[in-house]
Amino acid sequence: MRAFFSLLSVFIIILMLAALPDTMHDENGKFSFEPEAGWTSFKDYVGGLANGESFHYQQGTDRNPSFFDDMGRYFTISFLYLFVSSVIAITISLIVASWQAQSDKEWIKDIIGFFGVLPDFILILFLQMGAVFIFQSTGVHVARVASSSIDNPAILLPIMTLLTIPAIYLIRTLSERTYEVLTEDYILMAKSKGINKLTIFFQHVIRNVLPYLKADLHKMMAIMMGNLFIVEYLFNIPGVTRLVFNDSAYQFNLTVNGLLTFVVLYLMLYWSIRGFVYGLERVFAYG
User: Fold this and answer.
1) CA–CA separation, 163 vs 225, rounded Å?
2) pLDDT in tens, 165-185
3) 90 in Cβ contact with 166 (< 8 Å)
4) What sign has the CA pseudo-torsion 219, 222, 224, 227?
5) Closest by Cα among 259, 215, 279, 273 to 83
6) In terms of Cα–Cα distance, which of 72, 69, 49 is closest to 59?
7) 97 and 162 both lie in a single domain
8) Distance between the two ends of the chain, CA-based, in angstroms?
9) Quick one: which of 215, 184, 209 has its CA closest to 98?
């Protein structure tokens, strides 16, 4: 019951947010606020749920397709980019955090700190310029700088962009926890018995670090979902944001359905990552 009311609250909040643009108008340079227009959009959407009208949107001048006809492929593309980036970010963060916790080299922290404050669009610009420079210098096509079509998507650079900031966030968090674990008495006892570092890492460190990782999943995913807007736009990726934030006039139905899709995307991504972390627990923590 609690979950139902939470989802209902999210639905109502999305409707209210989507109605705001309809309440604000600029007529001859004068701003006007018309709450009745927003309320009308609100009622029309709820009323159109029964006959399916709320799930149609205007495309071009003569098309009125169903939202579900197009959303499937857009949703799949966004989900795959996010999930693959999440898995790589988690894997990298566990390895680097363990290494950083045992290292006294300050330049490592400086590099991590630099990339942590680098804005997404600057990182994307550097990656695209780097790929172009390598191609012009060596003739080697290391990565596509943008997606030219669904059949020719940019893969490497978008994934690198999506995983960089979440990975850095997890490295900073997990390195502190890893350091605390490595100074525990049972770890020192294992080292004194001559147990190699890999065995200690897989059987003792990961077991005690994974709970902190699970606690930070929502923060990591919030970062990635925010980055998704910029990544899909600048790399021309045909994902969820392509359909929702198009060049046509504002459409209440499309905005509501798009925001609800982001909620579903978030939930599916969260439980998929939880499944991946659970797999790590089964393989390493209880292996």
Assistant:
1) 11
2) 899 989 888 888 888 877 777
3) no
4) negative
5) 273
6) 69
7) yes
8) 37
9) 209
Q: What is the pLDDT of residues 117-161, one digit of tens each?
A: 778 888 888 888 998 899 888 888 888 888 877 778 889 999 999
Q: Are 208 and 181 in contact (CB under 8 A)?
A: yes
Place of tokens 């705001």: 20
Structure tokens at 66: 């169903």
Long-range pairs for 181-188: beta carbons < 8 A, 24 or more residues apart: 181/205, 181/208, 181/209, 182/101, 182/102, 184/208
pTM summary value: 0.86
Are 142 and 242 in the same domain? Answer: yes
**16/109 same-domain check:** no
Report the domain count for the chain: 2
Q: Which domain holds residue 120?
A: 70-285
Contact 239, 245 (CB under 8 A): no
